[in-house]
Every structure is written in C-alpha cells, then in structure tokens.
Amino acid sequence: MNPPDIQLKSSRRRDAILNALDDALRELPYSQVTIEDIANRAGVGKSTIYRWWKHKSELVLELFKERTETVFDFDFSQSLTYNLTQQLMKLSYSLDSHIGRALMVAMAENRLHSAEFFRQYLRPRREQTLALIHLAIQRGEISAQYDFELMLDSLYAPIHYHVVFFNQQPTSAYIEALVKQILAPIQRSTH
Amino acid sequence: MNPPDIQLKSSRRRDAILNALDDALRELPYSQVTIEDIANRAGVGKSTIYRWWKHKSELVLELFKERTETVFDFDFSQSLTYNLTQQLMKLSYSLDSHIGRALMVAMAENRLHSAEFFRQYLRPRREQTLALIHLAIQRGEISAQYDFELMLDSLYAPIHYHVVFFNQQPTSAYIEALVKQILAPIQRSTH
Amino acid sequence: MNPPDIQLKSSRRRDAILNALDDALRELPYSQVTIEDIANRAGVGKSTIYRWWKHKSELVLELFKERTETVFDFDFSQSLTYNLTQQLMKLSYSLDSHIGRALMVAMAENRLHSAEFFRQYLRPRREQTLALIHLAIQRGEISAQYDFELMLDSLYAPIHYHVVFFNQQPTSAYIEALVKQILAPIQRSTH
Amino acid sequence: MNPPDIQLKSSRRRDAILNALDDALRELPYSQVTIEDIANRAGVGKSTIYRWWKHKSELVLELFKERTETVFDFDFSQSLTYNLTQQLMKLSYSLDSHIGRALMVAMAENRLHSAEFFRQYLRPRREQTLALIHLAIQRGEISAQYDFELMLDSLYAPIHYHVVFFNQQPTSAYIEALVKQILAPIQRSTH
DNA sequence: AGCTAAGCGAGACGGTACGTCAGGTCTTGAC
DNA sequence: GTCAAGACCTGACGTACCGTCTCGCTTAGCT
User: Fold this and answer.
1) Which structural domains are found in chain A, ordered by start?
2) Is the pTM here over 0.90, yes or no?
3) How high is the pLDDT of residue D131?
C-alpha cells in the first residue's frame, strides 16, 4: 500500500491542498481555517482531504515539514557557533511564520500530535545537531564532557518561548547571545 | 464596574464555576471542555459565565492564576540556587497538570491571550525573580554583570519546552542541572 | 411538558417553517428539498428544525395535516353519496397537490411513518366516515349488513392509486362512478 | 444501441447485479441500499452499473419485472373469479416482498418512474386482465355492460393500499371478499 | 416586612463547522 | 480493450457548540 499512497499524495492534488492551506493561513489564524475552506481553495472535495489526513493538524505538520526542509541543514565547513546561530535564526523565522504559528497551535491542542512531531521531526534534527557537535569536538572546537541534551533544550526552547509568549521572533542579537552563553562553558579558546 | 465585579465574581458562583472547570479539565482536554459543560457542572446558566468571562481561555487563565499563587513565591532566606530550583520544580508541576496544559493550549490558540498572559502573569513573576537575583548580587552570591533577561528565558523556556514536546515534566535532576548550568558563569565560589 | 411544547411549536416560528416547506415543495420535489433550504427560507437555524422534528417526513406530515384539516369534514344534513363524493374530491385534490405528493413519498420511504400516518390520521378519519355511514343506516339510506372496512378501502384506495400511478387526480366523473359503484349494493331505492 | 444492450445486459454480469440487489434488499430497505453496495456484492465496478442503468429505481423495476413474470398469468380454463383471486394473491405477495416494497418506494420517489412503470408494466397486465374479462363475457360468466377500467382500479388499488398503509399484505379472505364485491353487480347466476 | 430591580437558571435561538456518507464521474492498471 | 477498483467532486446529512437572547424566578438591598 505504500507506493499508491506516495503516488497519490504526491500528486498535484496534494500540492494544491498544501498550497491552499498555506494561502489560508496567511489570511486567517489556524483555528479559523476550516477544512471546507481549504478544500474550496484547492478546488478539491472535502472528503479528498479527509481521505488522506485525519486532522487539520496533520496537514499543518506536513506543510511545515515541506516548507522547512532546509532549516536544519548545516554547512560542515563552518564553525559550530556559526552553524547553530544560522540554524536558530532560520528556526525563529520559520516558527514566527504563519505556518509555524499554526503548527504550534496544532501541537498544543493535542499531546499525541506534539509527541509525534517531536519523534518525527524534532528528534531527527537533534540527532543531526548532535552529529555536528561531535564533529566540533573532533575538530577541537569544544570540549567533550557535557550534557548535550540539556544544551539542545537550552538552545531551542528559548526560541519557541519567544515566539509564543513575546509574540515575536527573537532578534539576531538575542540569538547570538544565546549561542554564546550556551557554548561558553565548553568553548576552547580560539586564539 | 470594579466593585460589582469583585463583589460578584468572588461569590460562591465564581468558585463553583472555576471548580467545575477544574473538574472538567481532569476528565477532558481543554478543547473538548465546553462552556455548556462547565455551566451544567457548576449548576449555573451559560449566560452567567459569558457575563463575566469573554472566552474559555480567560476562565482557564483565572483558574491557573488562582491555583498557582504560591508557585513563584521565594524564601529569601535561602540561596538563589535553591530558590530557582524550587520555583522551577513547582512551575514544572503546575504546567504538567490538567490546568497548566489547558493554559498552554489557550495561550497557543490566541496570540493576544498569550501576550496578555505574559504581561499579567509572567512579567510580574520575572520581576520578582529579578529582585531575587539582585538580592543575590548584593549578598555576593553571583556577579552583577549579565544579561538577566536571557538568563530568565534560559531557565523558564526549557520547562515549557519539556512539558509541550516531551509530554512530561522535567525530572528534578534535569532542573538541578539546568539551574547549575545557567548560574555557573556568574556563580561566585562559595568557599 | 405539554404546554411549553405547544407554546413553542405553535409560535410564529412553527408557521414560518411550515410555510417555508410549503414554498419549497412548490418548487422542488420532496427528495430535493433539504432541511437547510427550509431553514434558510424560514429565516431559522437548521438546529431549530431538528429540535422539534426528527425527520423531514414529520414536517411534511404536520404540514399536510394542517392544510387538510377540513378535507374530511362532513355535512350531516346531506346524503351519504353527496358527502362521500365531496370528501373524495377534496382528498383527490389534496393528494395531488405538492404537499400530498410529498406526503406519499415520505410515507413510502419509511414503513413506520406510513403506519404512524395511518394510525394518527387516516384511522380517525375512517372512524368519522363510519359514523356517517351509521347515520345513513339509521336514516334508512343504506342497509346495515356490509363489510364497511372493505368498503372504505374500496373508496379511498383508488384515489391514492390514481394519483400515484396515473400521475393525476381522478376526474369528478370517475369519483362519482366510484361512489355509485361501491354504494350500489347497499343503496335503498330513493323513490 | 439495442443489440449491445441485449448482449451485455443479458450476460452473467446482469444476473450478478440483479441478484446482488435482491440480496441487498433482503437485508436493508431500499433507501439504504447503495449502488456501491450492489456493485461490491456483485463483484462489479460501480461504473458498470451506471453504464446500463441510470438510477437505482430502474434496477429495482427490472428486478421486479423479472421476479414477477408469472404473477399476472392466467389459467384460461378457470373462472374469472378464480383467476382474479389468484392473481391478486400473487400480486399481494409480490408487493409485500422486499422487492415489491422497494419498487413502491422507487415509484413514489419519482413521478416519471411511476408513470413509466404504469406504461411498461401495469398497463399491459391490465390489457391481459381485460382480455380475460372479455373471455368471461363471451362465456356468459358476466354481463357486458360495465366500466371495466374502474373495476380494475377497484381490484388492484386496495392491494397496494393495504401493503403501504396497513404494512401487510391483505389476507386471502379479504381478497376473496374484494373480488366477490366487485364482481357481484355483473355476475350471472351460476346455477 | 415588603418591594423592586438585579442577577440568575434554563434553554431556545440563528449560526458555523464538523466529519460522514452516497451519488455519479473519471482514472488507472491488470488481465 | 475491457472493466474492477476506487479516487474524486459534490452536496446533504445530522450533531455539537458557539455566543446571544428571552423568559420567569429568586434574592438582595432599600424603603
């Protein structure tokens, strides 16, 4: 059943639906975007959407994934500090967008969805980041002894926090300070 | 409008309504709790609720405030580390409760509400915490030069993050490590 | 609970809804009239209709009853033949109307509804007609020995049959012939 | 279009579809039997059904015709009374069956279909019955002067009426009484 | 103690969106 | 080349809540 699933959902219809959702979220907040509205904008029947996605939140997650594919990409030729700063800036931008905000509402509304989001999306990206960190250790940029999971939380959490409670993405100065603060304890002097 | 507001909302009716919401949230997630349900549980007409609260989210915020009054209280005779650790633990517990989760959904669903929540609730608590920090500086526990706003974010954000994405409150070990990590750069040796 | 029921359903809203159904049935066949359409025409919410009537068919039955109240009335000063002929003509007219046709569809679609219709509506009218017959017997118009139930079927059934299968109400000549034929065996000579 | 029609519709596919409808109607009332259900039961694509039949009602009519072919057959060696009684009994049985009830719903739902049914099915059968009546006249069983169309209505209509409104087929006693009553005025004494 | 205006419960109301379902059309892949 | 399988668009269904409203009935608080 996998091939037809891929076949059909990756058709032009899938794109039309995701684009429709994108458009709708530009105009209205997540809670006011209805499945019916999305269907109409996509020129698609409501049941076509329900056939492939159980909830509006799944649609949002899929849209977010697709539109933020490159957010977590690293440039391994650059330093850890640079990479983390860049990534957090792109993440800030993504979360503060119409899609990112919708995603956060969707995640908040349903524990299972947020768990799924973490498992499917955030965890793999954390793994990548951990890989980058290990590379930095090998390169001698940072020291090896540290609670890196806590470190990741300390990097990512404030970004979400800012977007949700301060209602805006953090400034680049803030992000730079954040990265600097978190990396300071393990940073090797770069004389 | 203030006197009657206080008069009426502080009556047994107000309590009945908040208790009804509390009960309802124990059984159902925020999104599935309806105003009608709350009214029935409280033995109260729907319009009585709408008379005093515009949105379900306001009700939740009020309930959260009432039930977490002591969460941010400090014991100024104790050390900064101790106070922060205790506070974050109580915060973790509160956020991971049925009420805390409801609050976070309510905040996510509406930017204005989350801004309001920050202004009304979080900011004052941050001020208190800053006061505690300044006390610690005077006491010589920590050094004075620091971006304390960033520090506060770094303390509070991971707690929210854990509850939302890990679907559980952080362990006390985690919180201790977090506080230790954040305070390390400014901690004076306590010989 | 009876008074409020009567109170509310006999309000101007009830009339608006029945009138809306009446209007709709003039334009569209029963199966194409939707509850939503009725609600819109009546300037009423869909749920108001569902609150009082379980099915579209109940609405139609109620409308039919209201609009055919006088169909079965007799003029006891007139002869049996006259009364039956008049009644069958009015019945023909009622059944061949937009409302009557809708009623017959509604009855056909659901055995329980047709049984209910018979019990609530047709049977009482048959009782009246039987009373008329007994009066005619006392008056000496007809003889007493007869299977009057069969007689009633023989009178009413062809009317329905004509409307359904011939797609038109029977002519007055037809009705007169029908009554004459059915009454002939028991008619006393009217010298 | 006629040859392929005959060709294909008389194939095993046609039988499979009609049998599937038959089966389905045994389990569910007409309104709840869907084309999709029929197609699945028949192991046939939905479009195969739509290719040959425009509406569910046409399918039902075709099924009814096929399964009631002998209902109107006469035994010309027997009396008119006998033949009519037998025919009405078979008709009662047919109409009260799952297929007959489905047919009546289908007819009620659409005026054109009921007119078509009358033209295609009932009228030819009435012709046959009229032929039988003329034979009886020739045989001297009955007198010639009569409104035989009205007579046919008086015979057939009460059968439909009983099935629809009394929710059951008439008893054989009822049918015998009916035939007797209708024939009485023109019956020649059979001393 | 009685009067009167408010607050109140109850729940009907006009709406909106839901998620399901069946109708009828169109596409695809296997045989 | 035919046809089953089933995706698809459409539109009605009946439900659930929304937030507003009207209606009598408490029930204080003032006379």
Assistant:
1) 2-53 (1.10.10.60), 65-186 (1.10.357.10)
2) no
3) 92
Q: Is B158 within 8 Å of A154 when comparing Cβ atoms?
A: yes
Residue A10, pLDDT > 60, answer: no
- What local confidence, expressed as pLDDT, does residue B145 receive? 84
Within 10 Å of residue D69's Cβ, how many Cβ atoms?
A: 9
Mapped onto helix, strand or coil, the DSSP state of residue C15 is helix
Residue B57: count of CB within 10 angstroms of its CB: 23
Of A19, A59, A55, A26, whose CA–CA distance to A40 is shortest? A19
* Average pLDDT value for residue range D132-150: 89
Verify whether the Cβ–Cβ distance A107 to B162 is below 8 Å.
Answer: no
**In this structure, are residues D80 and D132 in contact, taking their beta carbons and an 8 Å threshold?**
yes
Instruction: Kindly tell me if the per-residue pLDDT of D83 is higher than 50.
Output: yes
Q: Give the pLDDT band (50/70/90) at residue D189.
A: low
Tell me which chain B residue has its CA closest to the CA of residue A147.
B177
Interface partners of B (3+ CB pairs, < 8 Å)? A
Which pLDDT score is estimated for A188? Answer: 76
Task: Nearest chain B residue to A115 by CA: give it.
Answer: B165
CA angle, D31 as apex, D25 and D35 as ends, to 5°?
70
Mean pLDDT of chain A, nearest integer: 89
Nucleotide E9 C1' to residue B51 CA (A): 14
HEC profile of chain A: CHHHHHHHHCCHHHHHHHHHHHHHHHHCCHHHCCHHHHHHHHCCCHHHHHHHCCCHHHHHHHHHHHHCCCCCCCCCCCCHHHHHHHHHHHHHHHHCCHHHHHHHHHHHHCHHHHHHHHHHHHHHHHHHHHHHHHHHHHHCCECCCCCHHHHHHHHHHHHHHHHHHCCCCCCHHHHHHHHHHHHHHHECCCC
- Chain A contact partners (≥3 CB pairs within 8 A): B
Nearest nt (C1') from B11 Cα: E7
Mean pLDDT of A85-94: 95
Name the residue with tokens 């505690």.
Answer: B132
Residue in the structure block whose two tokens are 């099924």:
D63
Higher pLDDT, A9 or B125: B125
Q: Do A108 and B111 touch (CB under 8 A)?
A: no
CA distance C11 to C68: 20
Chain B CB contacts of A118 under 8 Å are 165-167
Task: Report which of D9, D124, D118, D4 is spatially closest to residue D63, judged by C-alpha positions.
Answer: D9
Measured CA to CA, the distance from residue D9 to residue D3 in angstroms comes to 10
What is the spatial distance between Cα D30 and Cα D14, in angstroms, rounded to a whole number? 19
d(CA B89, CA B155): 11
Q: A161 contacts in B (CB within 8 Å)?
A: 153, 156-157, 160-161
Contacts for D119 with CB less than 8 Å, ≥ 6 apart: none
CA–CA distance, D143 with D186 (Å, rounded to integer): 5
Amino acid letter, C38? I
pLDDT at B13: 86
Which residues, in sequence order, are CB contacts of C155 under 8 Å at separation 6+? Answer: C84, C88, C178, C179, C182
Contact A109, B108 (CB under 8 A): yes
Contact between A75 and A158 under an 8 Å Cβ cutoff? The reply is no
Q: How far, CA to CA in Å, does C52 sit from each of A5, A130, B5, C7, C118?
A: 45, 63, 39, 12, 21
B161–A150: do the CB atoms touch at under 8 Å? no
- Report residues of chain B scoring pLDDT below 70: 1-10, 189-191
Taking 60 as the threshold, does the pLDDT of residue D3 lie above it? no
pLDDT at residue number D126: 93
Distance CA A147, CA C30 (A): 72
Is residue C86 scored above 80 in pLDDT? yes
pLDDT score recorded for residue C59? 95
Q: Which pair of structure tokens corresponds to residue A9?
A: 């959902």
